[in-house]
## 1
Amino acid sequence: NAGVTQTPKFQVLKTGQSMTLQCAQDMNHEYMSWYRQDPGMGLRLIHYSVGAGITDQGEVPNGYNVSRSTTEDFPLRLLSAAPSQTSVYFCASNDRFGDSPLHFGNGTRLTVT
Amino acid sequence: EDQVTQSPEALRLQEGESSSLNCSYTVSGLRGLFWYRQDPGKGPEFLFTLYSAGEEKEKERLKATLTKKESFLHITAPKPEDSATYLCAVPQGAQKLVFGQGTRLTINP
């Protein structure tokens, strides 16, 4: 059972570089989301998707793009990395938001220098 | 604005020493409260969902309870492997979970 798989586990970027964080789930879940986790701030929602072709912004969307071309994949793109985007990023999925728990990946630790 | 506050921030116990973690929330129309466990370097792992005041759920040494304003995670006779950060969260709107900042629990052998 793979569940939610995130790659890479670690990444170091220089300010201004772009990159894509990958997220894939094999549970056929409709709902997928990206959170960032920072010390003292808890987990905060960046973007979410309720199905293929449908995405929307969360609490802290600036500087990030998402798309959802398939049910399985939900990549997060950093357009021009900034030190403020240094964080641990978690992808999550579930089949019916609010009624079933989120399943999380093991995160990507990103450092922007 | 909906808020979730967890206390204490950190808790250190001896093996076998029971205690409780607190999660207080201010949200209109609670549609459930979730508890997660997070180990270092891992993503949060689901433990419990509670939906209504008075509800209780148990799993091994953990028991979660819910009132109208807060939830408790009671840990009975903990073992070192129970050491982790425990997070609570409530749904806000249609698609967002609001998380507390977590309680970092350490159980010393």
## 2
Amino acid sequence: AQKVTQAQTEISVVEKEDVTLDCVYETRDTTYYLFWYKQPPSGELVFLIRRNSFDEQNEISGRYSWNFQKSTSSFNFTITASQVVDSAVYFCALIPTGTASKLTFGTGTRLQVTL
Amino acid sequence: DGGITQSPKYLFRKEGQNVTLSCEQNLNHDAMYWYRQDPGQGLRLIYYSQIVNDFQKGDIAEGYSVSREKKESFPLTVTSAQKNPTAFYLCASSQTGGIGNTIYFGEGSWLTVV
């Protein structure tokens, strides 16, 4: 069985601080995909990134960056110079091979960015 | 605009009633999904459909039913058999049901039992 753990339930930072959201996953499959989604107060889940298990390169997109380390089964997400608009719940999710795109979600991390 | 449309946004149901949540997508995606979200928890899969006229149970299908008569539509019925239906429901779709496809979500529907 697969599992995604987001140990940080809630994080509060002041605007312009950097913040890292942790994600640890478990799967027996050698081929899998990892995702991050953002859920703002409106409720919609917004896709942020998809990473396959064969690609361990870190990725940067503007103020967002992702650190994928298979050795520690982690896929952490960093927001640089956080802004109030980053306030949301962030979910990490996993699709192992053979599960027909059935996402397994972590419980989410609520990020609160204040002025 | 392309996307996934869910309706209604808010729905109140009396105990013992069935209710149907609508989900329509114009992304020409083959696969569609229904997830349930409870406060402080991640999303859990209710049902999914990889192709028209076919669907499979997810992890928490009891008390729910779906149909997939058209590619763009995947309505979810919450039946009276669902013991704790108050939750936030999210519909989603992906290009196909194959591994690795990005799953895109609608804006969700809040269901409250009164």
## 3
Amino acid sequence: GQQLNQSPQSMFIQEGEDVSMNCTSSSIFNTWLWYKQDPGEGPVLLIALYKAGELTSNGRLTAQFGITRKDSFLNISASIPSDVGIYFCAGSPWTQGAQKLVFGQGTRLTINP
Amino acid sequence: DSGVTQTPKHLITATGQRVTLRCSPRSGDLSVYWYQQSLDQGLQFLIQYYNGEERAKGNILERFSAQQFPDLHSELNLSSLELGDSALYFCASGEETQYFGPGTRLLVL
């Protein structure tokens, strides 16, 4: 089946540092989404990407949809304590209206003040 | 707040029992998706409904079933529960972009 490889699995950084994480797939996706999940809560959408090559920002977050349609990255600039959490990439191999999402394994971000 | 609501927030039950999880999508969304999140499997797609009709199926067990009603709310029914069914169950709604509810934490004892 389709799989997303997300890396790194965890990151330990200092407050104020920039963060970068990425996802790669063995197959093509038509949509890439990035979510953040806090413990016991549902994933919260951060950025949605719909076109190959698209670069989108949301405040300190920037994400790109890879040209090959098989990868995406998320950057967080000048990290702050509330950025702590688990970040997931998700891809949608859209087929005839079906929109199931395939998720990466997540990147756990820890920030030292 | 994503606009997607789920009830109950927590559910504790015994093996062999049956439970029903409920989801109300965002206003205007016709699609509802169900996902299971466990520690060892991550977030896994279970099933999608669109305007009352099943549209896509993922790794959903035969003991599990879902439906979407005319008012577009959806229910996920889990029967003959096993210990391994303990997990977070999320509902999402939307089309190209999916918005997740707060989840139902199911504990099977």
## 4
Amino acid sequence: GAVVSQHPSRVICKSGTSVKIECRSLDFQATTMFWYRQFPKKSLMLMATSNEGSKATYEQGVEKDKFLINHASLTLSTLTVTSAHPEDSSFYICSARDWGNQETQYFGPGTRLLVL
Amino acid sequence: GDSVTQMEGPVTLSEEAFLTINCTYTATGYPSLFWYVQYPGEGLQLLLKATKADDKGSNKGFEATYRKETTSFHLEKGSVQVSDSAVYFCALNTGNQFYFGTGTSLTVIP
């Protein structure tokens, strides 16, 4: 089946620094990727929709200058958390929609971010 | 608007018990319906899906039937195992966006 990877799986950083998270579709082309944030024991919150070669579409309440998204190729999207603060600590999950099967989203394993 | 409503958890069952996790949806048009499973510390994995009314999705002993008349997509398994302990998410796809339920935590005890 379709595989989506995320890197890193876990990251600890100091407050004020920036962290980049990569999301890759390994065996399919993804024109659209999604970034979610998941709080403990909560559902997924869609942060933004990332389309290859164009600007990301952010959900209401998500700061686009803080969460920078780049989707430079059909297999890679990146999320950069700029000037991270402890409240940004969370589980970030990406997903990708297969160009040939747009009904289904395939999820990455998630990235656990801890900001000290 | 479009939405998914899932039964509240947590659910605790003994091994080999019957499982039902209820899911109902509200959508315009004809969405596709999904169940995803999330094991501790991991991302979501697609468990099963159904793309039109009366379709039955099945995988690993789990089943769910797309019921348009009751706008439901309940997840069932006849005999759960300890390894089924996870959080289960119901979701719908309207073509443009996915909508997820809040998740139902399942714990299966030996």
